[in-house]
Amino acid sequence: MKYYDKLIFELSRPGRQGYELPADKYDTDGIADIPAGLLRNQELDLPEVGELDVVRHYTNLSSKNFGVDTGFYPLGSCTMKYNPKINEEVAAMPQFAGLHPLQDAESAQGALELYYNLQKALANIAGLAEFTLNPYAGAHGELTGLMVMRQYHISRGDTKRTKVIVPNSAHGTNPASAMVAGLEVVEVKSKPNGSIDVEDLKPLLDDTVAGIMMTNPNTLGMFETEIVEIAKLVHEAGGLLYYDGANLNPMLGKVRPGDMGFDIMHINLHKTFSTPHGGGGPGSGPVGVAAHLTEYLPAPHVFKKEDGTFGVTRDGDKSLGSVSTFLGNFGVMMKAYAYILSLGKENIRNVGPMATLNANYIKESLKDDYLLPIGGVCKHEFVFDGLKDKSTGVTTLNVAKRLLDYGFHAPTIYFPLLFHESMMIEPTETESLETLDEFIDVMHKVAKEARETPDMVKNAPLTTPISHPDETTAAKKPILSYKQMKANA
Ligand SMILES: *Cc1c(COP(=O)(O)O)cnc(C)c1O
User: Fold this and answer.
1) 78 Cα to the center of ligand 1, angstroms
2) Which residues does ligand 1 sit against, CB inside 6 Å?
3) pTM of the entire predicted model
4) What is the dihedral of CA 107, 111, 116, 117, to 10 degrees?
5) Residue 382: pLDDT above 90?
6) Residue range 469-488: average pLDDT?
């Protein structure tokens, strides 16, 4: 371990500090203006370290992070794709970043135009009538979309419709959002390939069904070929179709959810449209709806006036009202807009096919060593059910940890729950052939190690700063402050 890898409190020495304001230059009398009750009555308990110690400590710490800018990050279900850095620069342009949310519309026309154009661009990409950009994340978009669904039925006096059908392979946020929206979750079974079992769906479709939540391609990366039939059945039963478009990557510019029969959807701009994600934000989960649902969308909404200028609506008779502060996460929208414009209609069509090609290339190259429960052409991602040869007891978790020793991030593991040893791999369209080959090579190597030196693989990672953290304790009793850290030392 390097000296600066130590915990910061281990570097602490009583009385050491970075710098001190010279008392004769800076009048500290002003502190007296703070009401006595608010003044700190004890020294702040912080590590006592010099400035150089702090700089080195945090710089070293930052290099221990694995991110998509550090290496290949094949995380399935979460589309960890590279996002061009120029879009960060665009989002930081002071003309936009410096705007105040309470500024009047006349003085923020440029920002509103961008906002309006993005609403339209997403509607175009999705094949839907209108988008709101207000929600902050995918799950927030789901909640907003389901509130639209609920409002639609209620406003028609169809108040019995309180059930939402969700496949058992769905992303965990789907049933959670439905519950938060006050709807009841009914599970529909998946067939072995992860697609919805239409025969199981039929008896569920009665006059208490508000709608169905799905994603296509499904969680296993397979295209739901019976989608047109499913849409027909749900619509005939009076329900609506909700599309989880968090990972629109494989469909981008190729297939439109609106054309498949979906009425409502959300998109994660922070997966598909050029905002890196992980670490909790910022995100954006725009929601799109078909023409018969636009009046229920939340406010504020940006619209174009007859004279070509842009305005902001604050309400509407049937609007859900506000689901976020102001207009949402504007910086994320700027990146999405820059991304869409820089690709253009032509190139955006290549995103899906390239992501799909890369996923299939890895799948086919590795299926001799890893168990592929569902064959056939996948879309942007696929799932292995652990190693083919399980005789040495090496698990998916062991393989995932061993990959770290080779400089690769692990795929998503133990999700979906349909298999015991799930390993969900999504390479995205932005990786080069050389990177994919390197990953395939390493995966083969690990499979060989699992056969020949299984104990070593079970002890991996061997080269990372920490190896086997106690995840339960870390989640249940996290140590988040210096004080707690010292108490636990
Ligand atoms: C990421 C994801 C979500 C949730 O998005 P958040 O922004 O994390 O709330 C929903 N559905 C699917 C399929 C996802 O991959």
Assistant:
1) 7
2) 77-78, 137-139, 171, 173, 215, 244, 246-247, 268, 283, 285
3) 0.88
4) 130
5) yes
6) 86
